[in-house]
Structure formats: structure tokens, C-alpha cells
From TrEMBL, chains A, B:
Belongs to the TrpB family. It is an enzyme of class 4 (lyase). This is Tryptophan synthase beta chain. Tetramer of two alpha and two beta chains. Residues 66-401 form the Tryptophan synthase beta chain-like PALP domain. The keyword DNA-binding does not apply. PROSITE patterns: TRP_SYNTHASE_BETA (PS00168). It catalyses: (1S,2R)-1-C-(indol-3-yl)glycerol 3-phosphate + L-serine = D-glyceraldehyde 3-phosphate + L-tryptophan + H2O. Keywords: Amino-acid biosynthesis, Aromatic amino acid biosynthesis, Lyase, Pyridoxal phosphate, Tryptophan biosynthesis. Its EC number is 4.2.1.20. The keyword Amino-acid biosynthesis applies. The modification N6-(pyridoxal phosphate)lysine is found at residue 102. InterPro entries: Trp_synth_b-like, Trp_synth_b_CS, Trp_synth_beta/beta-like, TrpB-like_PALP, TrpB-like_PALP_sf.
């Protein structure tokens, strides 16, 4: 088993190209010049690339080698506990240094920036998975890393913050007084718990205003999804049999895309008949209850307009939602593919997700991060359907990270303190009234 | 690469047998009957076995398979950062469900107990590595698990506690009012922060008094060390070249023994010339500054007398010591082998250990637990000696766990808050006056 030597770009294999991002003022497609203050040219090129394969640079492979190839494991003990005839495989990305799939794109992003002379990368982080992956990647290429971490997480997840410090990054609680947008948020509410939207604005503002600085994003964009395809390419190579069903959780979409795209290539070419299923939280259901429309990627409206499934850029999930995947929008590329009917989408509530996480830990050992418990809840439900029908379905799922930094949420679940509720339709409709244009 | 099918018992290969444990009253060697209230017969048999190889049961292999074989990685990025001609390999045990090598013995201990009809296993845990490994193992064999966790850790490491809960274990802060010894400790000091000694007494007391209950220990004993030899057997198989030097940290000794014993077998048979080096904290230096004498394994004096390198069973490291490996004694088997001259021992101070941990994280990605940073500090020092001498030494080290639950200590190190000091000789001498008999 070896690490793939190329990333796979699914765009040229699609029956129709995805709609381009638009400039919010002119409503014209954005060009490379619009993105140059934020991203290095190599990544801008990958974002719009028409090549099916992009070679992975040797310098990136040398870092991937620290944890790749990742394990592909048959969940025999879970199968036995469920009494299912289904065969369940999981691809485990939690072996990466910061514990999730995010390192697969953090490393090339840090590398291309370093290669183009960038000395500082800025980013935002919510729970801290992306921030710690980028901090690790920057430590490998001697790039300074500054991270705006949502204040509520900064206070509640000190260990994620410590992990970024160990990798040498600077972590600011957001909103901070270091930026205009942070200062404004603090003026509005000195006790603001922060939000991803504010943190993005702060990181973007500093990157745009600092010489030799750029900004890095951990999901949503085409080049990010492409970097994640190492997951699916490895799984294709490792699986002893072809999957009937591939299941992954979706927040911005990079984890699901990373596992699914190489299998979708095989399906688009008529070589396999696999079904694909995205799982999102009932508390933040952009595929299943959002609209497909042009919207901003951030709350403050600083980004280009992206055509995507969105709950409205002002939508924020209820604070009772503990399970990650809190993004209001969705990868434009995946949104386009969903419209093309290339995969299904379902939702799961947080208590059934944590129940699946505990069940998985007690059979397979690994405590999953809250995000992949969504995929596990769906996988278990499917395996139990197979138990009823007797079908020997082959299921492949993405276990994109471990839950060592999320045990507070497990604690609350085990103490019976997590709530499920159905998101009221009027909250979605309210947020959708604020769509641009 | 496959998982070994046998554990290796080094005892029959030694030039002389280790001295037996003695009954503290009679000073006669303890027999199986003395141990039966605490351990299942299969483990008592392994403790005194004269067989060189003990087959690993299929049921244990089926669980080992969740994370074994573990990776053997060449630390190329660390080598490059150090500019050393040495070649550094590390065997990484942090991929186990609870994140350390402890699962290698927790699984067979839970298995043999379950097989002999035991329904409850009790144990103590300090930092939580052992407790969480046993909780995981018990979840695999439907054995109830009750853990007495030192109060100070219970309060300061809530995530370790949560991890045990996820695996279904019950965790008591020790001292607890559930036992006689706990109640006595609480009567003496209602605000007692607890100690490993008290926690052992509580776990032993409950195991001895409860039908179908037994006690489990995570290091020190012969059968525990033997279970860990899967580490070294795999490494022997995985290494592309023979090591000149094997380095491991020692607290109770099971991690060092697990990696070193299979290589020592090869050396005792004259097939290799490897040098072995144990590394202990300057704050708890049992090999290098203790005496070789019969002493109790616990603070309260409930265990048989063990001949070992000890600082005295009343010795407690300074509270400023953050780096794990706090046991006053040492494995009797390793102590005997040290007297036979089969390996070297050195000490490292905690600031140089955490410095090595950060250096390792920023080059190899993994944040090590505080315990293996002792071995990493020694490995780095050796590699820098090679840089001066030009020697292309092959170094193998044991990276026995990750530091995801120890980031508080890294925080304090990065903030400059860790202290080093030399342990005063009179503190050791004072503790040694309390040796039994």
C-alpha cells in the first residue's frame, strides 16, 4: 500500500461544470486577481483547474508519510454486536498529527504558501480541528501561523488551544481587539462569545493588510476537496471488495468529498454502482432543508458569492447543538453535484449520533469526533436495515477524526444533558430572507 | 507484517532467576494461593512461568487487531532538524484506543478474568493512562470495571475520566468513602488530594471483598512486562536494520521491557550487540539513586515484598514534577536484570523532556505523552553526540503514547512554569529508613 502520487479533480468528469463564484458588487465571475491577496497562485490555479490529476509535490508526500497511508479497517466487532450481515469498513483519518483529515489539505496549503514566499498564514477555527492541523502544517514549512479561535471554544477547549501552541502557532480569542472587525464586534458586545463569521473576518482582514501574509481555509473550496481525495484513492486500493454504499458526514463537505470522489469517478465511468450518502446534523441541514442559491461564505459578507446549498449566511445553529458541522452553507462543488443527483443526503439528530459514537468506542475502541458520529449513526441504521432484510451490503464510511478533544460533549451526552429538537421552519425561512440580491 | 502469535518470557533466558516476592509476615516466597484472591489463575501462572513463549489467545488477537501492528517510523524530519548522521526509529504505541501501550496488557488481563468468570475488575489510576486502557479492555469482554482515580488527577484531568466513562467504566475519586482505607484517609484529611498508594489500597480492598471480583495492575509484574513484548517482536520484524542502541523510559518498567526484551533475547544469544538504556525522571530516579532491596509495592504496605530498585515505599516525587513516571519502585524483573548489567540507566530533568517533546511535535507531528519525552530527550542527546563524532548510530526508541490528555503540562512548560531541581539526597535517605525489615 502506497500513498497516492496525485490528487483527483472531479470537475472535468462531471456532466456539467459548477457555477462560478461571483463578485458581490459586479455579479461577474471572480478572477485570479480578485483572489491573489488571499491565496497563493498555485492554489488559485488548483481552484479552477480542468486537469483530472494534480501531482502531489515530493515535499508534501514527505510530510504525508508521517501518518499516511491511513488504516482501512473492517468493523468486525461492531458488525458482531449489531448482528448484521452487512460488512462495514471505515477509513480512519484520526491518526494524523492533529487527529483529523484536515491535515491532508493543511500540509499542501502551507507548502504552496511557503514556496511562494509567504511568511504568515492566518485562519479561523471553531472547535479547533482545522486550526491545529494548520498549526502543525506551518511548523513543517517554517511559516508563522496566527489563528483566530471563536471565544467560546477558546475558553471551553483549552487543550485544542494548547495543541496549536505546541506546534508554535499564535492563538487569539475572537473577537479580538487586534482587528477592525473584531474591535467592532467587541464594541457591540464586550462579552461576545464570538462566531466563525467574525473569526473569518478577522483572519481575512489581517492577511489582506499584512505583507507576505495569506489566508487559509479548511473546507468548502474546490482545491481543499481535491487535497482530501488521498483518502478515497487509498481506500479504493485497500478495500478487498467494492462498496455498495459510501457514507460520510458533511459540514463544509471536504471529508465526504475526500472519501467519495474517487469512487464517484469509477461510477461516472460505469465501472461500479456504488450509492453515496451525505449525513448532516438535523440542527444544521443545508442539503436537506436549505436552498440552492448564491450566498456569502461568511456571516459578515466579505467573501465572493458562492452558489451553494445554504441556510442563509446569517443562520447560526442552536447553542444546544454539540455535534460540530455548524456551517450555514456547503461546498459549491458538492452542491452542484447534489443537484445533478450524484448522491443522497439525510440528517441525524445529536443524541443518536453520540449514541453511535459510544457504541463504536465500546466495540471498535476508537472514540470518534462528534462529526463522524453522524456517519456512524447512519451506518449503524443501515446495518440494522440489512439485519432485517438479510442483505449482505458492503458499507464504507469515513471516520474523519478522533474525539480526544471533544470528551466534554460525550460527558454531557452520558449525563443525559443533550437535547434534540426539530429546527423550526420559520427560523430557516427568516435566515433565507437575508440572502443577497 | 503480522501481529506476533506469542508473548516472549525472558526469564528462562537469563543467567540467573529473579528473587521471588516474599510474604511480609513469614518472609517466605508467596505461592499461587496467596495471589488467588487478587488475580485469575492463568495470570498467576504466567507470573511464574518458565516457558520462553506463551501463545496469545485468538480472542486477544482479535482485539489487538484494532490497532496492531503499530507503526515503526524513521524520524527523518527530526534527524534532518538535528543535522545528525544517526538514524532514529520510533515504535509508536499511541495508536491504541486509549492512546498508549497499556492496552497491550489490559486486553489479556480482561480476557483471562472474563474467561475465569470474573464479573468485576478493580484498579487504580493516577494520570489515567492505565485506567482508560483497562476500561476499554473491559468493554470488549463485558467485564464491569471500577477505577479509583487519584483525586488530584480526577479534578485536573476530566477528559481522561470522561474517556473511561465512554468505555462504560465507573470512576471514583480516591480517597473515596466506599472503602475502609479511603474512609480512613478522608478522616485523616477530608481535603486529601489522594495518592497512588491510597488508590491501590481501595481497589485491592474492593476486589478482595467482592465475589467474582479481581484486581488488575498496569506495570511492574512479570506477566505485565511479558504482554508488552508484542512491541519489541513487531519492531524486530519491521526494522530495516539492527539497532545499535534501544532507549525507553521507565516508571514501573513495562514500556521499556516491552520494546527491549525481544532484542535482549537476540543479544543474550550472541546474535546482536545492541546497547540498552532506560531513562527515568530526575525527580523519581529509582535505578540511578535508589537501593536494590525488598520493599512494598504500595505506600500502605498491603502487597507482598518485592526485591527491586526503590526509593522507599513512602517516597513521593515533588508536586512540581509534571512528567509522569512517579512510581517509587521498579519492576523486580528489570531490577534483577539491571543488577546483572544487562542495560544502562540515566536520568533526564523535566524541562529537557518537554523541550524534546515540543521538538518532536514540530518535526514528526505527534505530540508525545510526558513519559516518552524522557526517552526522546535521551535520543536527541545521543543523536547530537553522533553529530559531533560523525557516528551513524542506529537508535530505536519507544514512543509509548500521545499527549492529548497532557496538554496542561505542555502549557505550563511553554509558559515557562516548570521547575527543575535536584532531588536532595537526604529526602531519599529519609525514605529509605522506612524500608521494611
Amino acid at each position: 500500500m502506497v500513498i497516492p502520487s496525485n490528487w483527483y479533480n472531479i470537475v472535468p468528469d462531471l456532466p456539467a461544470p459548477p457555477p462560478p463564484p461571483l463578485h458581490p458588487g459586479t455579479r461577474e465571475p471572480v478572477g485570479p486577481g480578485d483572489l491573489a491577496p488571499l491565496f497563493p497562485m498555485e492554489l488559485i490555479g488548483q481552484e479552477v483547474s480542468g486537469e483530472r490529476y494534480v501531482p502531489i509535490p515530493q515535499e508534501v508526500l514527505d510530510v504525508y508519510r508521517l501518518w499516511r497511508p491511513t488504516p482501512l479497517i473492517r468493523a468486525r466487532r461492531l458488525e458482531r454486536a449489531l448482528g448484521t450481515p452487512a460488512r462495514i469498513y471505515y477509513k480512519y483519518e484520526g491518526v494524523s498529527p492533529a487527529g483529523s483529515h484536515k491535515a491532508n489539505t493543511a500540509v499542501p496549503q502551507a507548502y504552496y504558501n511557503a514556496k511562494e514566499g509567504v511568511r504568515l498564514l492566518t485562519t479561523e477555527t471553531g472547535a479547533g480541528q482545522w486550526g491545529s492541523a494548520l498549526a502543525f502544517a506551518c511548523s513543517q514549512f517554517d511559516v508563522e501561523c496566527q489563528i483566530w479561535m471563536v471565544r467560546a471554544s477558546y475558553d471551553q477547549k483549552p487543550y485544542r488551544r494548547s495543541l496549536m501552541h505546541v506546534y508554535g502557532a499564535t492563538v487569539h480569542a475572537s473577537p479580538s481587539s487586534l482587528t477592525g472587525s473584531g474591535s467592532k464586534a467587541l464594541a457591540d458586545d464586550p462579552a461576545s462569545p464570538g462566531s466563525l463569521g467574525i473569526a473569518i473576518s478577522e483572519a481575512v482582514e489581517v492577511a489582506a493588510a499584512t505583507p507576505d501574509a495569506r489566508y487559509a481555509l479548511g473546507s468548502v473550496l474546490n482545491h481543499v476537496l481535491m487535497h482530501q481525495t488521498v483518502i478515497g484513492e487509498e481506500a479504493l486500493d485497500q478495500l478487498p471488495e467494492l462498496p455498495d454504499l459510501v457514507i460520510g458526514c458533511t459540514g463544509g463537505g471536504s471529508n465526504f468529498a475526500g472519501l467519495a470522489f474517487p469512487f464517484m469517478r469509477e461510477k461516472l465511468a460505469g465501472r461500479i454502482k456504488t450509492v453515496f450518502r451525505a449525513v448532516e446534523p438535523a440542527a444544521c441541514p443545508s442539503f436537506t432543508r436549505g436552498v440552492y442559491a448564491y450566498d456569502f461564505g461568511d456571516t459578515a459578507g466579505l467573501t465572493p458569492l458562492l452558489k451553494m446549498h445554504t441556510l442563509g449566511h446569517t443562520f447560526v445553529p442552536d447553542p444546544i447543538h454539540a455535534g460540530g458541522l455548524r456551517y450555514h452553507g456547503m461546498s459549491p462543488l458538492l452542491s452542484h453535484m447534489y443537484e445533478l443527483g450524484l448522491f443522497e443526503a439525510v440528517t441525524r439528530s445529536q443524541n443518536e449520533c453520540f449514541e453511535a459514537g459510544v457504541r463504536f468506542a465500546r466495540t471498535e475502541g476508537i472514540v470518534p469526533a462528534p462529526e463522524p458520529t453522524h456517519a456512524l449513526a447512519e451506518t449503524i441504521a443501515e446495518a440494522l436495515r440489512c439485519k432485517e432484510s438479510g442483505e449482505e451490503k458492503v458499507i464504507l464510511t469515513a471516520l474523519c477524526g478522533h474525539g480526544h478533544f471533544d470528551l466534554g460533549a460525550y460527558d454531557r451526552y452520558l449525563a443525559g444533558g443533550l437535547e434534540d429538537h426539530t429546527l423550526p421552519q420559520d427560523r430557516i425561512e427568516q435566515a433565507l430572507t437575508e440572502l443577497p440580491g
